[in-house]
# Entry
Amino acid sequence: MLPTKAYAAPAASVPLAPFSIERREVGAHDVRIDIQFCGVCHSDLHQVRDEWGGSIFPMVPGHEIVGRVTQVGDHVKNFKVGDLAGVGCMVDSCRTCPSCQDDLEQYCETTGFVGTYNGREKETGAPTYGGYSSQIVVDEKFTLKVSDKLDPARVAPLLCAGITTYSPLKQWQVGAGHRVGVMGLGGLGHMAVKLAAALGAEVTVLSTSPGKEADAEALGAHKFVVTKDADQLKSVGNYFDFILNTVSAPLDLGLYVNLLRRDGTMILLGVPPEAPQLHAFALIGGRRRIAGSLIGGIAETQEMLDFCAEHNIMSDIELIDIKDINEAYERMLKGDVKYRFVIDLATLQN
Ligand code: NAP
Ligand code: ZN
Ligand code: ZN
# Structure
């Protein structure tokens, strides 16, 4: 086993603290990655606080991982020592069900995908530990290639926030001529703005934070609507072809569904702890749809990383010392992130 430094939540609602874990020995198909940077996703916060239920403790969160390959197994074909590599939300799946065969491992129908953390390894049942740690061992099939052209710290959030917003934009073929609303300008939201704008859509940020207007424009948004302002909200009634809803807290969905034009679609990405309420009339009135989307498959994640390298798209980040992770969670809860915290894992060595 490989002794590894980490930060863990010992139990729900207990602050994260230094912790030691053991990574498995490098198997024939595994790569070992020295983690340089790991993004901080709101899903980390939901899970360390057990807001979705079923959390496994102690928990080492983190599923936006970028680092250098330090060792490869005998049968590894696509990675060599020294390569820059990424790991996102999944480290395994059944690999045989129809969804896995369709490169949609996130929708694995038999075992479900194995989460990078808060999951269990298929063979041993051992808990998986994420990227708030110095190194990780992952099957190469679930390892991504990261371009040396981009800043690795700013690439890390693409592994979850990037793919989670890219995948629905591709699935619904969003592009020029579409009006896209992005609800919530946080980690997912700011990537949604950049990606939808790069795909040629007209992008409007729907935010509760008036102070984010200038940033929204700088990120590529064409309009900004403060959703607490009834008049501003009314100005975009029946307006959008698509709304990407990235909000992490409960809210009145009906109010926002009314912003869709006829046949428009709201795609749920945010996962508030409580189930949303919605009156059927809000959908029936305009033949509107509500859909959902979960991260993205490994092949599509690679496609997204290559797209971002080609278009010079990266996350806007605040780089933090790992000892400041609990404070970062508090700021994230207040919507005060510009626009993704990324942990510099060099600070774990101190
Ligand atoms: P985040 O950085 O905290 O951003 C969430 C944004 O939502 C905030 O910045 C804020 O934006 C808005 N917001 C927060 N509380 C609100 C409230 N009470 N009412 C209205 N708006 C509020 O979080 P994130 O990392 O982007 O994640 C967002 C959600 O997506 C989380 O629930 C996370 O678990 C989920 N997620 C889902 C997937 C998936 O596969 N579907 C993948 C990753 C994450 P404004 O200040 O602009 O209002
Ligand atoms: Zn995430
Ligand atoms: Zn499967």
Summary: The longest strand covers residues 30-40. Residues 41, 43, 63, 89, 160 surround zinc ion (ligand 2) (CB under 6 Å).
